[in-house]
């Protein structure tokens, strides 16, 4: 009996370590969970263990002062002691998740323990870099399955409302920004201010009860909080918590605001779910292979694929902090700030005091779709950055197209992957670890993200009520899957303007070619050769511009055909 009393206190810390990361086999895991599922004491012990590792820390659990004496032990207590002894032995045999492959990173949340509360709606989500926002027209968007519309007034203030006019529910995104900076519905001309209040109802009489129609609550559009930080427009999807939104900082990277830094942002809508997109962003090991030879091999080369020394240092409802150790120089600092931001911060060993950061965002728009925003920032070679200043010769649209080349590389892979995963888990997304086989330490971030999603995120995105959460049908044509116009160009004012300029230049060149040829035919023989040469050169340049025009629509990426 004395030995049992000792087991109740001493191995409690070992139990915490074992539950947080013991690499048991599936059969032993089922044995432990199933054998004691009916015991309230074991469930309470698990809850204590969960609270002790919320931030990835292994805390020593103290026994309760009200615990029964050894003389009150029954058969269930003997089973409890046997379980704890087994876990104690597992720890001393070295079966810890931190030292085993990420395959063992299966979430340890049991079926009888509810995950910690995480409200998807009360978070800031990035929408678009403001530099790419066309302020002359309304901007439609989806957030958590909900259709919204943004616009900007003459003072540069951004606003957002649900994309439905309170009059007859016509989409406000089909409207216009009027002379007063209000959003005007194109169905009957109702106009709305940035706070959602109705500014004008043309059909209402100027006197009598109708004159007060704009003041009625039912005339208001539903407004959502917005904010601009680090050049990105963020939206808060919950219209009922504007005070909380004002007190919550958007997910940004402080280093990018440092003196002497420059940053270039781009965005793209992609045909895969938020969880697939975020899982991909936190996975640095795929870059050399999935983005092989992109932009001349600057981004990745499949021959460079190798193991990565990744270490998750702190986990919790906030996300996780981690580092990637290097053989030379300080480690790279990686941060997943739930639910949407993952940032890489690193130093360059070949340039003194050179630092850089790649900040990526994944915004859940619709089931089967997400918006990816990428921010590349650095504190060196500022002169080569794109921008509006006269010395910034590198056009922003070209920055965007180079980044779209990168996003082409794994779009088809991820679109297919999530459908295979859906089949494997068969409606139980928390069983993702049984579907994946991740034997390398390079997959630790993926395991950490999936664990966060299971433990805190409710296993999936918190879509608004009424949203059909089923994945849309598989897109088989790459021309549709990798369509750049529908996923970027039509929403980016810089790329849309560049496309229009290329198309105009091509028409002019073809026109010159035809005109020169006609003049050459009618002119005397001494000028005929010059006219024909001019015609051929103009036509050739126009034909060459066709490739640039095509780039804004579709470029494609075929792994099997790239050497």
Give me the secondary-structure topology:
Layout: H1 2-9, H2 12-21, H3 26-35, H4 40-52, H5 75-92, E1 125-129, E2 139-143, E3 146-152, E4 158-162, E5 176-177, E6 183-184, E7 191-192, E8 198-200, E9 226-229, E10 232-235, H6 242-247, E11 262-270, H7 274-281, H8 287-290, E12 309-316, E13 319-325, E14 332-337, E15 341-347, E16 355-366, E17 369-378, H9 396-425, H10 432-435, H11 444-455, H12 478-481, H13 484-487, H14 493-522, H15 525-551
Antiparallel strand pairs: 1-10, 2-3, 3-4, 5-6, 6-7, 7-8, 9-10, 11-17, 12-13, 13-14, 14-15, 15-16, 16-17
Helix pairs in contact: 2-4, 2-5, 7-11, 14-15
Structure notes:
The chain crosses the membrane at residues 504-522, 529-549. Residues 124-206 form the Rieske domain. This is Rieske domain-containing protein. Keywords: 2Fe-2S, Chloroplast, Iron, Iron-sulfur, Membrane, Metal-binding, Plastid, Transit peptide, Transmembrane, Transmembrane helix. The protein is α+β, with helices and mostly antiparallel strands and 563 residues long. Helices cover 33% and strands 17% of the residues. It is built from 15 helices and 17 strands. A hairpin with a 2-residue loop joins strand 12 and strand 13 (319-325). Helix 2 crosses helix 4 (40-52), helix 7 runs antiparallel to helix 11 and helix 14 packs antiparallel against helix 15. The termini are far apart. Mean pLDDT is 82; it is low at 1-115.
């Amino acid at each position: 009996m004395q030995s049992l009393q000792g087991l109740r206190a001493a191995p409690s810390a070992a139990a915490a370590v074992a539950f947080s990361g013991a690499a048991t086999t599936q059969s032993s895991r089922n044995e432990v969970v199933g054998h004691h599922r009916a015991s309230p004491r074991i469930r309470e012990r698990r809850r204590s263990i969960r609270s002790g590792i919320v931030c990835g820390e292994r805390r020593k659990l103290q026994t309760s002062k009200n615990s029964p004496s050894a003389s009150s032990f029954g058969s269930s207590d003997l089973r409890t002691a046997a379980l704890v002894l087994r876990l104690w032995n597992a720890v001393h045999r070295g079966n810890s998740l931190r030292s085993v492959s990420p395959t063992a990173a299966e979430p340890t949340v049991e079926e009888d323990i509810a995950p910690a509360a995480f409200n998807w709606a009360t978070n800031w989500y990035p929408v678009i870099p403001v530099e790419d926002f066309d302020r002359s027209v309304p901007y439609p968007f989806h957030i958590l399955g909900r259709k919204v519309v943004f616009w900007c007034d003459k003072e540069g203030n951004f606003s957002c409302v649900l994309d439905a006019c309170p009059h007859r529910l016509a989409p406000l995104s089909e409207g216009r920004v009027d002379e007063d900076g209000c959003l005007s519905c194109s169905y009957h001309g109702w106009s709305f201010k940035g706070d959602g209040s109705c500014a004008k109802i043309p059909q209402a009489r100027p006197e009598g009860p109708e004159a007060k129609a704009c003041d009625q609550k039912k005339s208001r559009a539903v407004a959502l909080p917005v904010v601009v930080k680090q050049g990105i427009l963020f939206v808060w999807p919950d219209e009922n918590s504007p005070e909380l939104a004002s007190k919550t900082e958007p997910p940004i990277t402080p280093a990018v605001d440092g003196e002497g830094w420059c940053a270039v942002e781009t965005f793209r809508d992609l045909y895969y779910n938020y969880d697939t997109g975020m899982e991909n962003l936190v996975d640095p090991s795929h870059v050399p292979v999935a983005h092989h030879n992109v932009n001349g091999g600057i981004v990745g080369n499949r021959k460079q694929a190798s193991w990565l020394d990744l270490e998750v240092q702190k986990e919790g409802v906030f996300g996780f902090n981690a580092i990637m150790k290097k053989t030379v120089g300080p480690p790279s600092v990686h941060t997943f700030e739930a639910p949407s931001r993952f940032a890489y911060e690193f130093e360059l060993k070949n340039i003194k005091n050179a630092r850089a950061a790649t900040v990526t965002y994944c915004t859940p728009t619709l089931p089967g779709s997400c918006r990816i925003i990428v921010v590349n920032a650095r504190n060196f070679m500022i002169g080569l950055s794109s921008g509006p200043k006269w010395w910034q010769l590198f056009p922003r649209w070209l920055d965007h197209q180079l980044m779209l080349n990168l996003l082409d590389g794994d779009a088809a892979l991820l679109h297919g992957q999530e459908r295979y995963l859906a089949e494997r888990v068969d409606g139980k997304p928390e069983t993702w670890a049984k579907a994946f086989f991740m034997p390398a330490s390079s997959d630790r971030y993926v395991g950490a993200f999936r664990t966060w999603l299971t433990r805190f995120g409710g296993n999936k995105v918190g879509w608004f009520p009424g949203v059909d959460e089923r994945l849309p049908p598989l897109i088989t044509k790459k021309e549709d899957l990798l369509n750049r116009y529908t996923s970027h160009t039509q929403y980016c004012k810089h790329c849309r303007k560049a496309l229009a300029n290329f198309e105009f230049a091509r028409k002019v060149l073809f026109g010159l070619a035809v005109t020169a040829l006609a003049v050459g035919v009618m002119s005397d023989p001494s000028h005929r050769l010059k006219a024909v040469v001019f015609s051929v050169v103009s036509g050739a340049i126009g034909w060459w511009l066709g490739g640039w025009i095509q780039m804004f629509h579709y470029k494609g990426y075929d792994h099997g055909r790239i050497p």
